[in-house]
Amino acid sequence: MSGALVIVELVSGKLPQAGLELLALARLLSGGSVSVMAPGADEVTVRTLIARGADIVYVTGVAGTNDYNSDSWIGCAERLARELNPALILAVHNSTGADLAPRLAFRLGYGCATGCVAVENRDGVLHFTRPCYGGNARETVSFNTGLVVATVRAGVCDALPVDAARSGEVVAVELLPSRVRVIERKRDSGGAQRLEDAKVIVAGGRGLNGPEGFNVLEPLAATLGGVVGASRVPCDLGWCSHAMQIGLTGKTVTPELYIAVGISGASHHLAGCGNAKTIVAINTDAEAAIFRDAKFGVVGDYAKVVPALTAAIKTLPAV
Amino acid sequence: MHIVVCIKYIPDPEAAFSMFRIDEQAKQILPASGLKHVVSPFDEQAVEAALRIREAHPGTRITVLTLGDETSRNALKHGLAMGADDGVLLSDVVFDAGDSYTIAQALTAAVKKLGAVDLVLTGRQAADWDAGIVGAGMGELLGVPVLSFAKSVNVTDHRVGVERVLDDGGEIVEAMLPAVVTVSNEIGPPRAPTLRETMRAARKAVVKWSAADLSLNEGDLAPRRLRERLFAPVKEGRCEWIEGATPEEQGTKLAQRLREARVL
Ligand SMILES: Cc1cc2nc3c(=O)[nH]c(=O)nc-3n(C[C@H](O)[C@H](O)[C@H](O)COP(=O)(O)OP(=O)(O)OC[C@H]3O[C@@H](n4cnc5c(N)ncnc54)[C@H](O)[C@@H]3O)c2cc1C
Ligand SMILES: Nc1ncnc2c1ncn2[C@@H]1O[C@H](COP(=O)(O)O)[C@@H](O)[C@H]1O
To answer: Is residue B222 part of a domain?
Structure first.
């Protein structure tokens, strides 16, 4: 038993950064070869995967179309796992990975760790660190089963640089029939930048006091070339789309700059944005927990602070 | 139709974490003695989902199922007061050392013992350890389809239709029953128990099963996970405050400061 299998889901035909990070992690952790299952990967994607650390790429489905179907992907991954006998199977911790990983683990009879923020190989034993109790605590676990299936959050390690000289193999495999029929798919954000890839995120919380608050955040995000996100409360209240939720049960984001506006900083929220390089918080309550994670803090009403901030950024001299 | 909803009784996840203590030695989280316990929020929403299905299909039986110590009876009581029909408590010292795998084994054995169950509902994850494994595992152990992260669940004609929450939107999927569905918070707030249902709940049947009642052997209950460490994440906790006479001035200064610090 050696090597690793990484399951990579393409997003609109492209490789997401978090998937590339997993390739690097797999190289780091496993002595053996790194196999990738990449449904829908075309030739360009396959080449990129190899240049970024893959030894064998298993392509499935129709190139360019990779709509996730749990049953058929899990069946395919199960076959690969039985054939390759890897020590580790990795997937990104998102709605696909969180759906696929535990089922694959049970099917293969192996251990499962979800939402990991660190994975280490010490003396041949894999140790998985993950947030629990809403991000207030962390546990490090290992397993007495040979193989472990793990989902890993974005930002755990850097992707490997492109090495065009690397060579690898491509193998076509089949997706299996599914017991689940997809009737309709609704994608939220058409051309918009994905939160997961954004360098700058301006996120709003209950403190926006209503859906109109997002109209104040949008110009700031636009000025910074960033994207607007949210805590769970505005999503649940219907002020914004659920796809904007950041946190334990929402997205994990890793921007350079995260501006939290009217967000108290609950651990459940920080579980999704705590890895941002710089957190700025704007909140009327100086005692808000978010200021414990923020590098820069403004105690004040966002409705006044944010427009002034946006205007001032526009007048900054170019660098 | 018979629906089983798996509900876990946990310390209130919305409580300030100052109400908890991390026991690094025992690798356990100790809630303060006064801290209230609740049905894990997503599980409570799974009960809500079951009740909505029953509204569309009168005659449906809803069983709430929990694994835990005697206090977990309170979870069942809550589920029954919301409107479930009967409850099952799985309680046994041999479950104490369990992990996601053994809990899924025990819950699955209980579902099988209940007989012809059409639909199993669970939360997307238990709000204590935040694993999100047990529901998926039960689906695999039962050999039935799993539809995860549901924001709505409808049953028609031996099929279950689920609107799933995805990172970039959603999808509507369908599978034949029996199936397992894991419920997400997007389904909306659960109903509060009414006085009438709470009174009725006292008369509803609750059975308690041990590992032996479920014919589980040692192999089924041997944990696979070893918790090596439990600790609090470190926070830098160095916030630079941006002051100003007016909020507008603070906004302007923030822009300048972010430039100086090369963040912008
Ligand atoms: C199991 C579980 C999972 C969860 N998952 C997530 C998740 O994935 N993501 C998530 O975000 N949450 C999640 N939550 C919810 C989380 O615990 C918090 O309840 C939530 O993050 C709080 O959102 P908030 O900060 O917007 O609201 P609040 O906590 O109500 O904070 C609002 C803040 O706005 C400030 N404010 C008010 N008016 C103004 C103003 N005019 N200007 C500036 N500031 C103002 C207030 O001082 C306050 O600090 C989860 C909870 C549970 C139990
Ligand atoms: N001890 C338990 N009793 C009843 N249901 C449980 C228990 N543990 C987990 N579950 C169910 O499985 C779901 C996922 O749990 P977990 O994998 O622990 O995050 C929960 O939301 C519950 O519906």
So the answer is: no
In 3D space, the residue among A96, A46, A41 whose CA is nearest the CA of residue A74 turns out to be: A96
Per the domain annotation, does A37 fall within a domain? Answer: yes
Cis peptide before B178 (omega within 30 of 0): yes
Tell me the mean pLDDT per 10 residues along chain A, length 319.
Answer: 91 92 95 94 96 96 80 95 96 97 96 97 94 96 93 95 96 92 81 86 98 98 97 97 94 97 97 96 97 97 98 92
Number of domains, chain A: 2
Of the listed ligands, the closest to the CA of A112 is 2
Average of per-residue pLDDT values in chain B: 96
The rounded distance, in Å, linking the Cα atoms of A211 and A205 is 10
| Tokens 């060579």 belong to residue | A167
Residues B138 and B252 in one domain: no
> How many CB atoms neighbour CB A271 within 10 A?
26
| Claim to verify: residue B240 and residue B160 sit in the same structural domain | no
- The pLDDT tens digits of the residues spanning A145-187 come to 888 999 999 999 999 999 999 999 999 998 889 999 999 998 7
Domain count, chain B: 2
Convert the pLDDT of each residue in A290-303 to its tens digit: 999 999 999 999 99
CATH code of the domain containing A226? 3.40.50.1220
- For the Cβ of B137 lying below 6 angstroms from any atom of ligand 2, the answer is no
Q: Please give the average per-residue pLDDT across B46-73, as a whole number.
A: 98
Which CATH number characterizes residue A93's domain? 3.40.50.620
Whether B159 and B198 map to the same domain: the answer is yes
Please check the confidence at residue B113 and state whether its pLDDT lies above 90.
Answer: yes
Give bridge partners of residue A11 from the DSSP assignment.
A14
Domain harbouring B22, CATH code: 3.40.50.620
Asked if residue B42 has its Cβ within 6 Å of ligand 2, the reply is yes
Residue B79 burial (CB count, 10 A): 30
The answer to whether B124 touches B135, Cβ cutoff 8 Å, is yes
Same-domain status, A93 and A151 = yes
Q: Are residues B238 and B187 in the same domain?
A: no
Residue type present at position B47: V
User: Do both B20 and B129 map to the same domain?
Assistant: yes
A73 touches chain B (CB under 8 A): no
pTM over 0.90: yes
A313 touches chain B (CB under 8 A): yes
Q: Which stretch of A190-199, B18-27, B115-124 has the lowest confidence by average pLDDT?
A: A190-199
Please tell me the predicted confidence (pLDDT) of residue A150.
Answer: 98
Q: Ligand 2 test: best mutation among B3, B5, B6, most atoms within 8 Å of CB?
A: B6
Show the domain range for B262.
234-264
Radius of gyration of chain A (CA): 21
Q: Are residues B72 and B185 in the same domain?
A: yes
- Note down the domain range covering A226: 195-314
Average pLDDT over residues B86-96: 96
CB A71 within 8 A of CB A178: yes
Task: Report yes or no: B172 at the A interface, CB cutoff 8 Å.
Answer: yes
